[in-house]
What does this fold into?
Amino acid sequence: MQISIIIINRNSRLFANRLMETLISSCERIEKCSEIIIVDNASTDNCLQVFEEYSKKIRRPLIKIIRLKRNAGFCYAVNVGIALARSQLVAILNPDLYVDSNWLIPILRVFETLPRAGIVQPQIYWYQYPERVQSLGLYADIIGNYKDNKFGSKVILAPFGAAYVVRRDVFMKIGSLDPIYFMYGDELDLGLRMWLSGWMVVLEPRSRVYHYMGGITPPSAYFSNLKYFLMRRNQIITLAKLLSLKYLLIILPLLFVVNILRGIQSRQELRSILAAYMNIARNIRYITIKRYQYLKVKVLSESKLHRWGLFRPLI
It folds into this structure.
């Protein structure tokens, strides 16, 4: 099986050289790595010069650079990259990481030996502390809050968004990433849709990548507020799109109460939560259409995910 690598780039000058060196080294070890596609979200630093230099001097893998005219968000950029990819498998990577030289080999074996694997996540370590694990994948509680895979299970609900590999045809069939998310929460939405469509999400601990958490995130109050708004809004959208009405009648009121309690603790959080609910109200038609589309490919019920331990109690 051939694999394409997609980097969703935005102002990654500090990380670009190490990322490209390690990716090219890993691709030299296997013939199945055919291309690296950089989808750039209108970077304002000179990071694209780094990628351009590699594209001129490296013949294999083929390096392509796609320049978006505006910062369209992580989800839209992923969809652009996957639409252009030519391989059966596609790796989705943040730019603020580097990879082990053999990281692709065990992942390819999983896809070859596990026909129902839709997503495989490598084991992710800290960029600054390469012996410390950052993520073994994600679970969720019953209202859609992230939970770390603390037990190291190889079967997970969703990948950590910094690095994962998907089957391209399955990704397209279940509807790609939802561009309304912009960023944050898209991995939970994708993982849930994979499972509910009959595909598995798994961790491959023999594959290692190293991620600098927040390495390209602007350290500003505005971005902090935007992040919190997107996380709360996208959490509600995911539940509303994918879960049965029986579950929604229980979960959405419970989540509303939890959000009110969060807002009581912080006026700043309250503003973000209110903005999230108002935005959902404005986009209710879009969410309803997406729900109808996703329900057409849904073959499992969320009750099975509860029984399998992929949804955890609210604690």
User: Anything to note?
Assistant: Residues 221-242 form the longest helix (22 residues).
